[in-house]
Design a protein that fits this description.
Keywords: Cell inner membrane, Cell membrane, Membrane, Sugar transport, Transmembrane, Transmembrane helix, Transport
Helix content: over 70%
CATH topology of the largest domain: ABC transporter involved in vitamin B12 uptake, BtuC
Membrane topology: Multi-pass membrane protein
Subcellular location: Cell membrane
CATH architecture of the largest domain: Orthogonal Bundle
Strand content: under 5%
Organism: Lactonifactor longoviformis DSM 17459
Low-confidence stretches: none
Number of domains: 2
Distance between the termini: 25 Å
Shape: globular
Mean pLDDT: 88
Number of strands: 0
Largest sheet: none
GO molecular function: transmembrane transporter activity
CATH class of the largest domain: Mainly Alpha
């Protein structure tokens, strides 16, 4: 393989390489504690909201580097509404969940209207939303914490998938899920490659596809093995996977998904081609409101309470994960898998430093430097390509 091809591969998988190196570093520094089964499970539980919010934030960023500063406050507000309904008003859990999702959609539509159709800058609208919904959260909660959440609600988001297969110290259902995930991945990859070959499109060399597939399947299997050694598959992982798979499909396989990239690449040309760019902006923020409500569902389940400080700095985690995961600060570039890698990297850094007992102030410094480095890499790469 010549230097040019090596350079392309390194650039394409920079964050994957960084994630592996950072994981190995913290595994070494923590004496192996980083990869203990319970810590792997904690990595999922503690960062579920980041995976969900970052997926929605990607759609906003794709439209031209726009962001949503209100998501942390929206998570708090929707959680406050849900907690009040379920605990204080004794509303049916499933009805309360539907109301929470509906509130998220209404908030997304409200902000999307001003951004898409009135053309108020997203920074201003969402900054206002950050203040409005944080204030409304305190109004709904009256400054108090509501707890605990109903048991049937916690079972949905804060429990583990049933293990009918049993196993002596190893959750066999979890291991079977890992095998099925690998099989599905291989079928999708090789069917996709065969389809591209038939259509005459350029494809990766078979050797590269095989090596990448082996590595990914090994990571999936090792990850599921660690979960199987603890309590199995957390329910929250199932919810996160549903969000990731749905939005990965939307952004890569659907017409509306291509519109997000087109608007971020060149809005004027997109409008001239007959696409209603206002609707694209509206959909981006409508989805962000919906996914903020989803994040609220998993957040109050994990905390087992709705409190006025929930969601603090969540927007920073989501935005940082997107840029670290390869989304361009200029819009038009980024993928859901890339964002998930970025979110996982942030989660690994957080967990590793927590295990090492690093002061929280230094943790913020490290995360800030990682974010800055990712954006610098994006800007420098764009200048070189031009």
């Amino acid at each position: 393989m010549d230097k040019a091809k090596v350079s392309v591969v390194v650039k394409k998988y920079t964050m994957v390489i960084a994630l592996i190196l950072v994981t190995l570093f913290f595994t070494w520094k923590t004496g192996g504690k980083m990869l203990l089964p319970q810590n792997v499970t904690n990595l999922i539980a503690q960062n579920a909201y980041v995976f969900i919010l970052a997926t929605g934030m990607l759609l906003c960023i794709l439209t031209g580097g726009n962001i949503d500063l209100s998501v942390g406050s929206v998570v708090c507000f929707v959680g406050a509404v849900g907690g009040s309904l379920m605990v204080n008003k004794h509303v049916n859990t499933y009805l309360a969940i539907l109301i929470m999702l509906g509130v998220g959609l209404l908030i997304g539509a409200w902000q999307g209207f001003w951004i898409a159709y009135v053309r108020i800058p997203p920074f201003i609208v969402t900054l206002a939303g950050m203040l409005i919904f944080r204030g409304l959260s305190n109004v709904v909660l009256d400054g108090l914490t509501i707890a605990p959440m109903p048991d049937n609600y916690l079972e949905l988001f804060n429990n583990y998938v049933v293990n009918p297969l049993g196993g002596n110290g190893i959750n066999l259902t979890c291991m079977l899920a890992g095998v099925l995930a690998c099989v599905i991945y291989l079928v999708v990859v090789f069917n996709g490659r065969r389809s591209r070959t038939k259509k005459g499109y350029e494809t990766e060399p078979m050797a590269g596809v095989v090596v990448k597939s082996v590595i990914i399947c090994a990571v999936i299997f090792a990850f599921m093995f660690r979960l199987a050694q603890y309590k199995g598959i957390p329910n929250v992982l199932v919810w996160v996977l549903v969000v990731i798979l749905v939005y990965a499909y939307i952004t890569s396989k659907t017409t509306i998904g291509r519109y997000f990239y087109a608007v971020g690449g060149n809005e004027k040309a997109t409008k001239l081609s007959g696409i209603n760019t206002d609707n694209v902006y509206f959909m981006a923020y409508l989805n962000m409101g919906f996914l903020s409500a989803m994040a609220a569902l998993v957040t109050i389940a994990r905390l087992n309470s709705a409190n006025p400080t929930a969601g603090t700095n969540y927007e920073m985690d989501a935005i940082g994960s997107c840029f670290i995961g390869g989304a361009s600060a200029y819009g038009g570039t980024g993928t859901v898998p890339g964002v998930i890698i970025g979110a996982t990297l942030m989660g690994v850094i957080n967990l590793g430093m927590n295990i090492m007992g690093v002061d929280s102030n230094y943790q913020k410094v490290v995360k800030g430097l990682v974010l800055l480095a990712a954006v610098i890499f994006d800007v420098v790469s764009k200048k070189k390509s031009q």
